[in-house]
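Lab notebook, bench 4. We co-purified these components, and the gel suggests they stay together. Before we commit to crystallization screens, I want a quick structural picture of the whole thing.
Request: model the full complex, all chains together.
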Amino acid sequence: MRHHRSTIMTATAVFWGLVFCSAALSGCSATQLEERSFPMAALVDDKDGQVVFAYGFPALSQKDNTDLEVAKVNVPMTSGASFAESLAAYEGEMSKKADCSHLKVLVLGEQLLQDKKAFNDMLDTMEESDLYPRNTYVCVTKDVSVLFETEENLPQDLGTYLELFLQNHESDRQIRHENLGKLLDERRNRRKVVELPCLQVEEGAIVLSDPVSVDFRWEG
Amino acid sequence: MFSENDQISIRQVFRLFAFDFIGGSTLVLPAVLSGLAGVDGLWSILLGGGIASLYLFYLGLVLRRIDTDFLTFLQQRLPVWPAKGILVFLTIHCVLVAGYAAYIFADVMKLGLVTGEKYSLILALILLAAAYAVCGGVESRARVYEVLFWLLFISLFLMLLLAARDMEAVNLTPFFAAPASSVGKGGCLVFFCMTPLFLTLFFPAYVGKGKRGKMVLAVFAALWFAVGVLAVFYVILIGNFGASSLAFMGYPAVTLMSSIELRGSFLKRFDAFMIGIWFFTLFALVNVFLFYGKLFLQKAFSCQTRGKKAAAFVTILILVYVTAMLFQMVGSAAVFTDYMRYFAIPFLVILPAAVFVRGKRTDSGSYL
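Here is the predicted assembly.
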């Protein structure tokens, strides 16, 4: 019995020793919390054949408790030939790495939905890189830059505000919200038309309008 | 408080095997079955359960006819070199299965929990934790799984109930559309995931005398519990994601858990806790094969002293680590499936009967 216990004690000591050493050696491998910013909304649109892109951040970051000005995440919308290019341009402008694990809402411009190649290209990038969480809400607006500009007048950041807005309207049974995962699944299954909630800005306020249909059967 | 006699109860046997069966199968199989047979993958699961039941029945027959556990029988009744050869093959098999399970475990942990960390570091820590658990003996592990069993599975069933709300009927069609050959292939893959069954042969050493029949029944119950969980999982995954989308996913069960919408400050991150189910079940799978790999190697090279036993254990650990690293580099699933199909399954099917027949011949004094 004593023999057995001493073996276990030795194994425990060796185990914790190795854990300690590995923790000490791997301290700098991952991006530190202070080096990250946490976008709450992503906005993508298509303008004059160029894909435009921007993130929406909380005014005072709830995640790392830093001011936006200090964090230097107030980057204007960027554009590129594809979603991947405009995203890379945007992230190139940021001083911190975007950690999208808390992303609440993905807003798509109506024009982007019309351009099937650009839209598919964006979904490809999102699927391959696991860029955003699958449960990120997806909604549509006529012009994302108009929605982006309303953020100043909102009581919260755009992402959190839109998340609550969509949840409240769903509980009123006015819409059925869809998420990014559903969009990616239906693109593979090619069996359904997905209806995305559509937002528009009227006199500075965000309101619901008729849902926009995305027909995934086009490739079938 | 607890006895330390290297004996476990029948209930613990059920829970140990249930953990061994569920981890790998629910993580890896749904995407593969969906690609092979779509919704008809459900028939593959039932077919695989049927084949596994027949295999267990066969193992039960062999066990009924030998007085001891299979390992003792093998060593006592077979000439030295054939017995050593079989033990070496069994060691290699245990290393490969433990390596594959450790690879999946580290991969899931990297994807779902510590994205920025190195795979090799995660793997090393998993194996060290597993080595510690193996040092605790079969009783310690059985007690841990016994305590965790309902805690994990009640949480899992609640999450599955929540996930069932989002199923879409259109995704559950068409039925009976896949060719029989695809369903058959899927059934074989399900059987591959249930091959920890062959360890039933070595379990009589850890249950009391006169409990063999009950032990085999407990393994049978664990098998169908796992098949049931897999089938329910499969239907919910197909209903949520659709067959085509499911076929492209890496670990759809983990994706499902993170897709279930839970509102409320505490429950919101319950999905992270649910990934723990696969951590525990894969940990159990790594452990059991690490344990038997160590045992077979020690028996093959007659390691009697403490130093030799420890050396055998360290050798197994290093081999499992290297195997898991190799699985990460090459197309792991295809390599492992080929190994199971062409080497492991034929060997594991022939071995019990061959050893039994040869052993009985030795008994009657008719050496070849």
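The two ends of chain B are 51 Å apart (CA to CA). Worth comparing against the SEC data before the next meeting. The longest helix of chain B spans residues 80-112.
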